[in-house]
Amino acid sequence: MDELDARLHRIGKHPFRAKFRLYGRDRAIVDLRGMATVRRHAAEIIETRLAPAAPRNDGRQTPYRGHPVFVAQHATATCCRACLSRWHGIPAGRDLDAAEKEYVVEAICRWIAGQHGDKGVPE
Questions:
Q1: Torsion angles phi and psi, residue 8, rounded to 5
Q2: For residue 110, what are the domain limits?
Q3: What would the pLDDT profile of 29-83 be if each residue is shown by its tens digit?
Q4: 109, 39 in Cβ contact below 8 A?
Q5: Phi, psi at 32, each rounded to 5°
Q6: What is the total count of domains within the chain?
Q7: Measured between alpha carbons, how far is 65 from 46 in angstroms, rounded to an integer?
Q8: Nearest Cα to 73, choosing from 85, 86, 84?
């Protein structure tokens, strides 16, 4: 288990974060479109909604459903800059750099893949 997996495991034990699961339409998006497409969507969502130093509606910009990336953001505490700072040590008030954006996308994608368990996620 690497550092990111350990952090996601710790975050997943928090009562609020532990209740998130991929169900219904959100799970079907991953099944139908594949993980490569979901990863691309995650990168686009992070770029527009989380990466700026002062995201629009920060703290309220991430819906709770409608796309598996949104659910994963809440489950992994990558939903707003305050959560990124608190849970991942990525400070608010400045744009995310390329490595931080990739870290966030990787956290989201690992959680989504973990939701599929033994079934596997289509590429």
A1: -65, -35
A2: 3-119
A3: 999 999 999 999 999 999 999 999 988 888 888 888 889 999 999 999 999 999 9
A4: yes
A5: -80, -40
A6: 1
A7: 16
A8: 84
